[in-house]
Amino acid sequence: MTGQRGLVDTTSTGRRNPGALRRIPQFPLEWDRHVQSLSDFRKDASFCMTSSRIWLRFGAFLAVSFVIVACSSGGDTGSSGEDNAGESTIAVTDGVAEITADDIAFNASTITSPADQPFTVSFINAENQPHNFAVYTEEGGEEIAVGDVINEGETNEVEIEGLPAGEYFFVCDVHSGEMKGTLIVEG
User: Do 93 and 145 share a domain, yes or no?
Assistant: First the structure.
């Protein structure tokens, strides 16, 4: 039996019993809204879970990207090959080329020299890592000249005999993956 809107007598006698009255959602307005909100909740919950996963993956992607960028660049230096810090060319002047190792990179990626004239590479180690300077016919090729491994603040003079015109490979044998470049002998 229904007395006031939304209040139902829960006794079997059909009489009004104010202590036994409780609120039951009215059909169809309140009940549909309740049921509808339950299905919306499920949709919203799955959307939130999917949305959370997307943001979590995006955050992980950003973190990994940051680590890759941070590890692959050391300030102004490149990570390998001819992407050395200097990206510049040093020319042999008066029989000497001065090259420096700092931050696991040479200060130049190219050295130029005239053909058939001996010269000296004055190699300076400006960091707390051991380095050397070596010249080969090509990467993995025959040795032309190999300097001593030196520590921070030390200098090594590497004598290179006159070479025929062509391109040669120079490298720090200690850090061969990061520190390498091209010796261009022009003739």
Answer: yes
**Residues with Cβ within 8 Å of residue 168, at least 6 apart in sequence:** 135, 136, 137, 138, 144, 182, 183, 184, 185
From CA 137, how far away is CA 123, in angstroms rounded?
19
C-alpha span between 80 and 77 (Å, rounded): 9
User: What's the predicted TM-score (pTM) here?
Assistant: 0.55
Q: Is the peptide bond before 25 cis (omega within 30 degrees of 0)?
A: no
Q: What is the pLDDT of residues 24-33, one digit of tens each?
A: 555 555 544 5
Name the more confident of 187 and 27. 187
Q: What CATH number is associated with residue 147?
A: 2.60.40.420
- Say whether 90 sits in a helix, a strand or coil: strand
DSSP state of 80: S
